[in-house]
Design brief:
Blueprint: H1 10-20, H2 23-34, E1 45-46, H3 47-54, H4 58-69, E2 75-78, E3 81-83, H5 107-113, H6 116-122, H7 127-131, H8 135-141, H9 143-164, E4 175-179, H10 185-193, E5 198-203, H11 205-208, H12 211-218, E6 224-228, E7 241-245, H13 253-266, E8 272-277, H14 288-299, H15 307-316, E9 319-326, E10 331-337
Parallel strand pairs: 4-5, 4-7, 5-6, 7-8
Antiparallel strand pairs: 1-3, 2-3, 8-10, 9-10
Helix pairs in contact: 2-4, 3-4, 9-10, 10-12
Amino acid sequence: MLAARPRTDLGALTRLTELADYIVPLTIRVIAQLGVADQLVDGPRPVTELAEATGAHAPSLLRALRALAGKGIFTEVEPEVFGLTKLAEPLRTDHPLSLRDAYPLMAADVRAWAGLARCLRTGEAAFPRVHGADYWSYLAAHPADSLAVDRWMSSLTRLHLRTVLPAWPWAQARQLVDVGGGDGAFLAGLLRRYPHLHGTLLDLPHVVAAAPALLAEAGVADRCRIVAGSFFDPLPAGADLYVLKTILPGWDDVDATAILRRIAAAMAPQSRLLLLEAIIPTGDVFDVAKLVDLHTLVLTGGRHRTRDDLVDLLAHAGLRLDRIVATPTLTVIAAGPAGPQLTSP
């Protein structure tokens, strides 16, 4: 018996073509890198002026902006004259939640993505195979790419500070350790909002190198100690809070458990661990975490996790889930040492 012929749905074909496109995402990243949106703050301008201001080739820039305008990112108000739209506004450097640095186009990442098929066959990250070094070692050896990643994380941190801080009673703590806290952007924002807090920033030496200037600019350097080290080594002990912001998804279960065990060993009985990360929802619902999870597979072989996955991971590290608070961006997952039930704040 012959199988039924699939129905021809031109709308579905068009939608699939849009979803399969990688031209628009790559173009957004380059236009952000050029700073085109910054040149349109005072209103629409001819593409020739935009090209001169950004160092671009005018006919080529026209082709890029025309493609984006068709998606609502910029608008062609008259032939070869472009202006900002609601979608283009966050690409401005001066936007309060600027995403200009959130979309770096890194050649190393693109080359790794070309190995996705092997990732899906083997479950192994593509990045180490393509570049001969794991993702973190590669960044340590390539300062320009490492800086781009720091800027990307700092860009997202502005959004996270708005959404995550109201979800937890930070005023009840006095000492916290930001484990793997990068250049200190999140910790600086936290200390600035809570003058009673003192913090410790811990990350690899090449990562925290930029932290002193950033913390000083935020006016919190006198309340923050910088520790250059790895979260696989013993951690500063006895703090009220240990924060892991978007760290565990970068690692497989073995390494993630090792990180959590280091934190468990450093905690006092009343210490709390706060995981700030996305939780994978079940079913067909769209969630950005499902996309980032695939990116994580390609780069590091790590993974984002479901609620049950996190509960199991914490248990294997000698920690117990205490509270989950959803926010519009990251989820706050609070845990304490396994033992008597802790009282949630």
